[in-house]
Specification:
- The complex is a heterodimer of chains A (408) and B (230).
- Chain A is α+β, with helices and mostly antiparallel strands and 408 residues long.
- Chain A folds into two domains: 3-53 and 270-406, no CATH class; 94-225, no CATH class.
- Chain A is 55% helix and 18% strand.
- Chain A contains 13 helices and twelve strands.
- Chain A has helices at 3-15, 18-54, 80-85, 126-129, 142-146, 156-163, 206-213, 234-249, 263-306, 308-316, 321-360, 371-397, 401-406; strands at residues 60-65, 78-79, 95-110, 113-122, 134-137, 151-154, 173-176, 179-187, 201-205, 220-221, 223-228, 258-262.
- Chain A starts with a helix and ends with a helix.
- In chain B, the strands form two sheets. Chain B has a six-stranded mixed beta sheet, sandwiched between helices. In chain B, strands 1, 2, 3, 5 and 6 form a five-stranded antiparallel beta sheet that branches.
- In chain B, helix 3 crosses helix 4, helix 3 (107-118) runs parallel beside helix 5 (150-162) and helix 4 (124-134) packs across helix 5.
- Chain B is built from seven helices and eleven strands.
- With 230 residues, chain B is of the alpha/beta class.
- Classes of the chains: A alpha+beta (408), B alpha/beta (230).
- The interface between A and B is medium-sized, with 23 and 26 residues.
Chain lengths: 408, 230
């Protein structure tokens, strides 16, 4: 018997028991659908998170004080001079620009409205390094940095919280920690992010922040963003600024009192986290696929018992073990294959709905049903059918013809 | 006919012992028979006489505990399951009391089934149609068994049994589920097919009127041949 005939016969047999077949298929549909949806949501989450990390800017290095890998006693903080030293064309040819930052948590008020947010004290280079744009007004100027001006740029979330709008705000006055600041612009939205809040910020000149908000002495700064001249030069730039800092801080070899992270590091970390999440969710969904498979086995066993006489007859007519095996395996595989195909559709639908719900709640999560997930689900569900069909099919194939024919 | 002298079935001291718990049941206690090509033989005997066991062994559905069985020139008593399946497919046609047709399939598809297992694909439909025509069901080919009368169903079963041109046709109470009129028709059909094609016909029955229509009656009792009347 060839495969084509086996498939036609299996279809006839499945068709003769429509309700039973469809209920069995349903088990696989739910399993595959869940796997597909979970993988899609996981992929979508990963894209969103890595996307928002990329949105911080391009070709960035993050330089921080301290080193989590070592226990150091006297850590020298990063200073403005450290940042300026990195701009040295000869010692750091791979560095394009440097943006030192002082940050802190503050309360911003306007009239009766008040919001807790992050304040970033920055220099003029922050605009290009972090790829910020203003929707109105203008970014902080060199004069304002030098003059410790009481001016502020509002992130769109802060603007909404205080004024319920993001337009026509230039010239307004807000109070940060009780001190008046003049609004000179509103930042363009960078979209939501799981890790770094990019819209819920206010930006002031670094000197103003040092003097009046975070009150740091000695030109201490918290973080330096370093932009390399190209993506390829990122590791080169990292090595160059590490060398500069080692010299300036007089650290021993292997005892760096600073940490340099690249954007890639963050992306990798985020990917690791979302991968674990995806595997976890997919694993739970996989359990339902397993249960579906057991459903197939159950129904195939019933079917073998029911058709004992038929099997006996087929054997009497010359069917070999292999023929009977193929007949029942074809049926179980077709059951799970159908389940798989419909399940892919269901998973797609679920992902789509999840995407819509996420969108309406303001989280740009776009689930992606990948070809790999579809392939995986199809192969896996057919394998489930084969595996769980094996035992019933084997039982059918090994029936004694005499016994089977006598069965009532 | 020259056929008379060619043995198609030869058994030598065929024994079958079933173990039920601690008790050994000698269903066949040494049967030696020879059946020649073209013969029409009835196997009779009360229940428990071993006639079903003998039929299962002659039809290659089961293996003897001991003894030899040569079917159409092939020693079959020591073949494995799949080899026996091949022998059944090529050399034995079965007709059962309860027809045993696949209810989901048409008459034509039922008759095609043995050829599928034989690996015939090209002329399968034509051969199946011809077999149905020879049993007088040319106009019922695409009917399902549920749409056919008992006599018609048994005709389909006979067409199925003969479609691979077997050496022997085993019929187990072929008229047992039929009324007397269609029972007679089936018997007439079996006998005329035997005359036309010379297929050896073995009928297992306890109905004396059926046995009376055959050329030879083998009576079994307690697993032994009691009488062999030609």
């Amino acid at each position: 018997m060839n495969l084509g005939q086996a498939i036609i016969e299996a279809l006839e047999s499945l068709n003769s028991n429509k309700l039973r077949s469809s209920l069995t298929i349903l088990g696989i549909v739910i399993g595959v659908g869940a796997v597909i949806a979970m993988l899609a949501v996981g992929n979508g989450a990963q894209n969103t998170i890595t996307g928002s990390i990329s949105g911080i800017g391009s070709n960035l290095l993050f330089v921080m004080s301290g080193n989590s890998n070592q226990e150091l006693t006297n850590i020298e903080p990063l200073t403005m001079d450290d940042a300026n030293a990195m701009l040295d064309q000869f010692q750091a040819p791979s560095v394009e620009d440097v943006a030192p930052v002082v940050n802190g948590e503050v309360t911003v008020t306007s009239g009766s409205e008040s919001t807790a947010t992050f304040v970033y004290g920055v220099t003029t280079s922050y605009e290009s390094v972090r790829n910020y744009h203003v929707t109105e007004g203008s970014f902080i100027t060199e004069d304002q940095v030098l003059g410790k001006a009481s001016v502020v740029l509002l992130g769109p979330d802060v603007a909404k919280a205080l004024f319920d709008r993001t337009e026509g705000l230039v010239g307004e006055t807000v109070r940060i920690e009780g001190q008046p600041f003049k609004v000179i612009g509103v930042l363009e939205s960078k979209g939501g992010s799981a890790f770094v809040s990019q819209d819920d910020v206010v930006i002031v000149p670094i000197t103003t922040s040092q003097a009046r908000l975070t009150r740091r002495s000695n030109d201490r700064i918290d973080l330096i963003f370093v932009q390399s001249i190209s993506a390829d030069a990122l590791s080169q730039a990292s090595e160059e600024i590490a060398q500069i800092l080692r010299t300036r801080h007089r650290t021993k070899v292997g005892e760096d009192d600073f940490t340099i992270l690249s954007q890639q590091d963050f992306v990798e970390t985020a990917k690791t986290i979302t991968n674990v999440m995806t595997i976890f969710l997919g694993g739970i969904a996989g359990i339902s696929l397993l249960v579906g498979g057991i459903g197939i086995m159950n129904i195939m066993l019933v079917s073998v018992t029911e058709r004992t006489r038929e099997i006996g007859l087929r054997k009497a007519l010359g069917a070999r073990k292999k023929d009977i095996m193929i007949q029942f395996l074809t049926e179980s595989s077709l059951l799970s294959l159908f389940g798989g195909v419909i399940g892919i559709g269901l998973g797609w639908l679920i992902s789509f709905i999840v995407g819509r719900i996420a969108l309406s709640s303001g989280t740009p999560l776009n689930p992606v049903v990948g070809l790999d997930a579809i392939l995986l689900a199809t192969i896996f569900s057919t394998a489930v059918g084969l595996f769980f069909g094996l035992y019933p099919a084997n039982r059918a194939a090994n029936l004694e013809p005499v016994e089977a024919l006598r069965y009532e | 006919m020259e056929n008379d002298l060619i043995p198609v079935i030869q058994t030598h001291d065929l024994r079958k012992i079933y173990k039920i718990g601690e008790v050994e049941v000698h269903a066949l206690a040494g049967v030696s028979i020879t059946i020649n090509r073209g013969e029409v033989v009835a196997i009779m005997g009360p229940s428990g006489s071993g006639k079903s066991t003998l039929m299962n062994l002659l039809g290659c559905l089961d293996r003897p505990t001991s003894g030899r069985y040569i079917l159409d020139g092939e020693e079959v008593s020591e073949l494995d399951d799949d080899q026996l399946a091949g022998i059944r497919n090529r050399k034995v046609g079965f007709v059962f009391q309860s027809f045993n047709l696949l209810s989901r399939s048409t008459a034509l598809a039922n008759v095609e089934l043995p050829m599928r297992y034989a690996g015939v694909s090209k002329e399968r439909v034509q051969r199946a149609a011809a077999a149905l025509k020879s049993v007088g069901l040319a106009d019922r080919m695409n009917h399902k068994p549920t749409e056919l009368s008992g006599g018609q169903q048994q005709r389909v079963a006979i067409a199925r049994a003969l479609v691979n041109h077997p050496a022997i046709l085993m019929a187990d109470e072929p008229t047992g589920n039929l009324d007397s009129k269609s029972g007679k028709e089936i018997m007439d059909l079996l006998l005329s097919l035997n005359k036309e094609s010379g297929t050896t016909l073995i009928i297992v029955t306890h109905d004396p009127t059926i046995a009376a229509q055959t050329q030879r009656i083998i009576h079994l009792k307690d697993g032994l041949v009691e009488e062999d009347i030609k």
